[in-house]
Design goal:
about 110 residues, mainly alpha, two-stranded antiparallel ribbon, about 10% strand
Length: about 110
């Protein structure tokens, strides 16, 4: 009886459980990479100084350079703040992502 009950639970759980497939994972990866490049990097194909490195932080600061701005309704505007620095502690993670991407593209016969 115990084996039948456990088998039934496993069969029912299998029918209701699902995971992301390869296509969903790739779509999610490319979406996050596009978001990284658009919002956290200055991308340059000529690889100029200070480009193609991820930002350290990104956020909003209501009083940027001691200049407070207001919109037409009198509401204070938040200025976007993106910070790059010489000592980027997360750069090794970005390099690991690029290495993984290169290997996956090579394994699937795509252009690296």
């Amino acid at each position: 009886m115990k084996k039948i009950l456990i088998s039934l639970i496993i069969i029912l759980a299998y029918n209701y459980c699902f995971s992301q497939g390869t296509v969903q994972n790739l779509e999610k990866y490319w979406y996050y990479k596009q978001r990284l490049q658009e919002n956290f990097m200055v991308v340059s194909s000529t690889n100029e100084s200070g480009t193609n490195h991820p930002a350290i932080t990104r956020g909003y600061h209501p009083n940027w350079f001691n200049h407070i701005a207001y919109d037409e309704h009198g509401v204070q505007i938040s200025w976007p703040v993106v910070s790059w620095g010489d000592n980027n502690a997360g750069l090794q993670h970005y390099i690991a992502v690029l290495a993984t991407e290169c290997r996956l593209l090579k394994d699937y016969g795509q252009v690296t």
